[in-house]
Amino acid sequence: MPDRDPAYEPDIAALGKRKIVHVDMDAFYASVEQRDDPSLRGRPVVVAWKGKRSVVCAASYEARRFGVRSAMPAVSAERLCPQAIFVPPDFVRYKAVSQAVRAIFERHTDLIEPLSLDEAYLDVTENKTGLPTATLVAKTIRQQIYEELNLTASAGVAPNKFLAKIASDWRKPNGLFVIQPHEVQQFLLTLPVGRIPGVGKVTEARMAETGIKLVGDIYAMGLAALAYHFGSYGQRLYELARGIDHNPVVSNRVSKQISAEDTFPDDIPLTECEIHIRRLAEKIWLASKSNARQGRTVVLKLKTKEFSSLTRSMTPNEPIATCEALTGIALSLCERIDLPPQQLYRLVGVGLSNFKG
């Protein structure tokens, strides 16, 4: 039996007080391209620039059947799916569609926390349209997105953000899944640990070495044992296995740092991180431009296969003026990593902070 702490046992009554919806657009960039160009519909579309350094921004579900996934090198996508149609990304158009989706959200609640152009959390504990349930709110939002924008979205409804995120992925694409408060523990116990947001293949493999394959296995472990194997992340796992997540939906959040990171399917040496750093730098540059903010400090984050974290940063005299400058600084920070060349890494991240405006 696990060593239970009453402070960490879920309170079903408390869980039922919050109603969170996570909306995730289906293959967003690729779907916009297929919507706007009828010749692309039903065909494997890969949103990416062609070239050795390019990575996949998005793939249609037709392309995903061949194993094409976001963030993989474009050359790998071309090899997996030779008949794929490559379309260069048009982020200005995607942002405009994202704003139209946001306008639909705002009809229902002001508590909206966007995670990216294609997904957001909504707190609909009290909704503006007077709909009686969060499930009906989510259903209505999906219907309005389809009727007005000719796009599909998947949604998850749950008592907190952690569970809503899992639920939105449960019946993708174009699906709706609801986790009621009294269903939380039963739902979680048989869930593969890979379903937990943030648990990639490397962490999943590390957990398997410890005998953890299901969330129920985490639930059965004591807090001390989890902390021993996973450090500070152990406490978070202990809480998530019990459906506990107190993080609120925060609207209009002004980020002190814009960042993005990749967790690799297999551990890689630092020399193979360049393509990921370039993609992440481009991603956060676009995010900073969409917010009209100028950052001065570039941060490089690495996590070793042993779960040790390293960060390096640089602050030039002037704000970062171009994506190329941001990328160059992020790559130069690799030179300040003083671990042996044979060291392997499971994650890389790039951040931009110290904003001027």
TrEMBL record:
Please provide the record's keywords in A-Z order: Cytoplasm, DNA damage, DNA repair, DNA replication, DNA-binding, DNA-directed DNA polymerase, Magnesium, Metal-binding, Mutator protein, Nucleotidyltransferase, Transferase
List ligand-binding residues for Mg(2+): 24, 118
Q: Which cofactor does it need?
A: Mg(2+)
Which one of the record's GO molecular function terms can you name?
DNA-directed DNA polymerase activity
Q: How is the cofactor bound?
A: Binds 2 magnesium ions per subunit.
The entry's localization annotation reads:
Cytoplasm
Residues annotated as domain UmuC: 20-200
The GO biological-process annotations, alphabetized, read as: DNA repair; DNA-templated DNA replication; error-prone translesion synthesis; SOS response
Q: Name one GO cellular component term.
A: cytosol
Enzyme Commission (EC) number: 2.7.7.7
Q: What is its main location?
A: cytoplasm
Which residues are tagged with the site Substrate discrimination? 29
Active-site residues (renumbered): 119
User: Catalysed reaction(s)?
Assistant: DNA(n) + a 2'-deoxyribonucleoside 5'-triphosphate = DNA(n+1) + diphosphate
Q: What family does the database annotate?
A: Belongs to the DNA polymerase type-Y family.
The UniProt subunit note reads as follows: Monomer.
Functionally, this protein is described as follows: Poorly processive, error-prone DNA polymerase involved in untargeted mutagenesis. Copies undamaged DNA at stalled replication forks, which arise in vivo from mismatched or misaligned primer ends. These misaligned primers can be extended by PolIV. Exhibits no 3'-5' exonuclease (proofreading) activity. May be involved in translesional synthesis, in conjunction with the beta clamp from PolIII.
Q: What is this protein called?
A: DNA polymerase IV
What is the species listed in this Swiss-Prot or TrEMBL entry? Edaphobacter dinghuensis
